[in-house]
Amino acid sequence: MYDLESRRRALTLVNQGRSLHSVSKETGISRYAIRSWMTRIEPLARSKALCERCGPDPQPPSDHSAYTYLLGLYLGDGCLSAGRRGVYALRIACSEAWPGLIDSCEEAMRRVRPGNLVSMEKKQGCVMVTSTSKHWPCLFPQHGPGKKHERTITLEPWQQQLVDAHPWELLRGLIHSDGCRVVNWATRPVNGAPKRYEYPRYFFTNKSADIRQIYTDALNTVGVEWKQANAFNVSVARKASVALMDAHIGPKY
């Protein structure tokens, strides 16, 4: 009697630590139905999505491109929250002004963890894209107590290999989370009179020096010139470098 999306939403709320009573009240689905899905559907979905990092021979996620993009989103606007039964929720805050970004984030989560549920929750000014799994800490070992800019953030060797192979995907995720493309303007004298001219520019802003270093290292890999605009802001303004960024990243949508 319930469609697949209703089942997914109910199970996602339970995995976030909600009680059966509160989930039933919010969704209108009986507690009996939710409980039966927890015992029949959820274990089956998880069994189909084993973690590549947890086996005797740990491997990187099978979808390298999607994972590297999701890594950029996580480093910028993501967090992991522990729930019940060892389940973690990966949450990426996406501005509601960019529906294409929300879709890209959801797609990346589904590609990285095909057997896990993904839900969207509207907050003030943003949409929280969320997926639950016991294995998110395996895939994002940067998780830890406190804010990212208050602790050390380094990439594991296997993550660095993926970033080296897919630097533009990492840069796209970082820009989509904590970056922007703007049009700046300036004036210069022409025949004795000031003339205004405009030029596009990329900014990336993050309080974590480690994350900014990861960003600028990737820029160096792809040959993009950059400069430190201020304490937390990295700027790309050279015409050739902006053209490269436009070709591989482009504006948010």
Describe the structure using short key phrases.
253 residues; alpha+beta; Endonuclease I-creI; 2 domains; four-stranded antiparallel beta sheet
Strand order of the largest sheet: 1-2-4-3
Going by CATH, the architecture of the largest domain would be Roll
Radius of gyration: 21 Å
**Share in β-strands:** 15-25%
Number of helical regions: 11
Task: Offer a concise description of the structure.
The protein is of the alpha+beta class and 253 residues long. The chain is built from eleven helices and eight strands.
What's the helix and strand layout?
Layout (H helix, E strand, L loop, with lengths): L3 H12 L4 H8 L3 H10 L1 H6 L16 H14 E5 L5 E8 L3 H14 L5 E6 L2 E8 L2 H4 L17 H9 L1 H12 E12 L2 E13 L3 H14 L4 E4 L2 E4 L2 H10 L5
Antiparallel strand pairs: 1-2, 2-4, 3-4, 5-6, 6-8, 7-8
How is this structure best described in words?
The protein is elongated. A hairpin with a 2-residue loop joins strand 7 and strand 8 (233-236). It has two domains: 4-148, Endonuclease I-creI; 164-248, Endonuclease I-creI (Roll). The chain has 253 residues and is α+β, with helices and mostly antiparallel strands. The chain has helices at residues 4-15, 20-27, 31-40, 42-47, 64-77, 99-112, 136-139, 157-165, 167-178, 209-222, 239-248; strands at residues 78-82, 88-95, 118-123, 126-133, 179-190, 193-205, 227-230, 233-236. Helix 1 runs antiparallel to helix 2, helix 8 crosses helix 9 (167-178) and helix 9 packs across helix 10 (209-222). The longest helix has 14 residues, at 64-77.
